[in-house]
Amino acid sequence: MMMEWEKQPQQEEVMVNGNNNGIFVKVMTDEQMEVLREQISVYATICEQLVEMHKSLTSHHDLAGVRLGNLYCDPLVTSVGHKITGRQRWTPTPVQLQILESIFDQGNGTPSKQKIKDITSELLQHGQISETNVYNWFQNRRARSKRKQQVSAPNNAESEVETEVESPNEKKTKPEDFQFQQNPAPRAEGLCFQNPQMSSGMDSTD
Amino acid sequence: MMMEWEKQPQQEEVMVNGNNNGIFVKVMTDEQMEVLREQISVYATICEQLVEMHKSLTSHHDLAGVRLGNLYCDPLVTSVGHKITGRQRWTPTPVQLQILESIFDQGNGTPSKQKIKDITSELLQHGQISETNVYNWFQNRRARSKRKQQVSAPNNAESEVETEVESPNEKKTKPEDFQFQQNPAPRAEGLCFQNPQMSSGMDSTD
DNA sequence: CTTTTATGAATGAAGG
DNA sequence: CCTTCATTCATAAAAG
After folding, report:
1. Looking at the UniProt feature table, which residue ranges are given for the DNA-binding region (chains A, B) (predicted)?
2. Which of B5, B93, B131 is facing A151, going by the closest CB pair?
3. Which site among A153, B21, B79, B151 is 20 to 30 Å from A138 CA-CA?
4. Measured between alpha carbons, how far apart are the two ends of chain B, in Å?
5. Domain ranges of chain B
6. What is the pLDDT along chain B (206 residues), one digit of tens a residue?
7. Which nucleotide in the DNA or RNA is closest to residue B182, CA to C1'?
8. How far apart are CA A111 and CA A134, in angstroms?
């Protein structure tokens, strides 16, 4: 059964600026926001429960544990299936990524040498990784984050939307941090939570 | 296990109606929408993978299957867990493409930042486009062009350097060479994360 | 509608 | 740090 919201994207598109250069934004009502929160929350809960179930299983059945050992250890979450035929470049596992992101968010934009080692050790518990990988990751993360800023910056023509973001400490995700995308299909889009295809799963095509 | 959703929402409140009786709603930027999609998508993917894993386990251990049977059949979980992806990508209009191609052909293979802005402005007259789009286009164009060169011109100039992995000397891109990620198998099952609170969602105009 | 191809976008790594 | 390149992923468009 599909979730309701997929069929009920009832946000409206409003033009913030009255002139023809105005920007269109998605509008959500409080209720919709709440629903979203609920749904995400549900996912979180489910995930936790499933993980617990999995733990129970593997702890009670060595055989199963072994069998799936190399599968759940990280591949479970090994995101998009990629060939195991000698990957040339490191790809962070979701867990590693999450950790990296959280560290990045902590504002310590200064990845010191020692810090790198520290982080690397930590991440090694969740998959192969090297200090260079960590170093590069932070460099790239920083650079790209910054670039996004400057791209979205050209907001001289201030709109009616007061940029009253009272989160000066937030340095990465800016509200106006989006870019225009051509949308040839003027049809209702809103929350396009669709299901094109579940593809890219854990199909490790070796 | 919760993600940063709680901290992300930086929507602004705007009054949809100009008059003082207007309703206040939350506004989400495309960026935020994208973040949301990503997060939900992650949950969906993880859930699906966990379910798959669970299936593998239970198929080998009836006991475990029974044990967990009433657990995953919980009202919480009802059907379809799917990936929610809603990214849409920019598609250049013929006119834009024409201009881009001509610029590319002018040999100025070095699209500087200022140049990008310039080009973007130009192309904006022929359809929606962003600097990032232009940047990406040139990056891709050059890469593709270069690749074609090396493929169509297998000059023996550099002897046996083709001791590469895989088969780079293969005629252009060979689809069969790399992984197939499509699996159009119509699956009408899986998990569904339903919640009493969710079901009576936003469709009720209350 | 399903499968394949073309190509926009994301990102790890290297160079300066 | 910033820019550039190479490879990969995902999806719109085309082909069947």
Report:
1. 85-149
2. B131
3. A153
4. 32
5. 26-64, 94-150
6. 444 444 444 455 666 665 556 666 666 666 666 667 666 766 666 666 666 666 666 555 444 333 333 333 333 333 333 344 445 789 999 999 999 999 888 877 767 788 888 889 989 999 889 888 999 999 999 889 887 776 555 554 444 444 433 333 333 333 333 333 333 333 333 333 334 333 333 333 33
7. C3
8. 9
Alpha-carbon distance of B10 to A77, in angstroms, equals: 29
Contact A94 B64 (CB under 8 A): no
Two tokens, residue B129: 């486009």
- Say how many C-beta atoms besides its own lie within 10 A of residue B88's C-beta: 14
B42 within 8 A of A98, measured Cβ to Cβ: no
Residue A67 contacts by C-beta under 8 Å, 6 or more apart in sequence?
B56, B60
Instruction: Give me the phi and psi of A167, to 5 degrees please.
Output: -135, 65
- Could you tell me the two tokens for B28? 């989400």
Distance CA B28, CA B188 (A): 32
Output Rg (C-alpha) for chain A, integer angstroms. Answer: 22
Residues 183-202 of A with CB under 7 A from strand D: 184, 196, 199-200
B179 DSSP 8-state letter: P
CATH of B94-150, one of 2.40.50, 1.10.10, 3.40.50, 3.10.620: 1.10.10
Q: How far apart are CA A134 and CA B179, in angstroms?
A: 27
Residue-wise burial string across A25-56, b where 16 or more C-beta atoms lie within 10 A, e elsewhere: bbbbbeebbebbeebbbbbbbbbebbeebbee
Nearest to B121 by CA among A180, A48, A38: A180
Query: What residue type is assigned to position A122 of the chain?
Result: E
Three-class DSSP category at B64? helix
A33 in reach of chain B (CB within 8 A): yes
Cα B22 from chain centroid (whole Å) = 36
Hey, what are B35's tokens? 């973040």
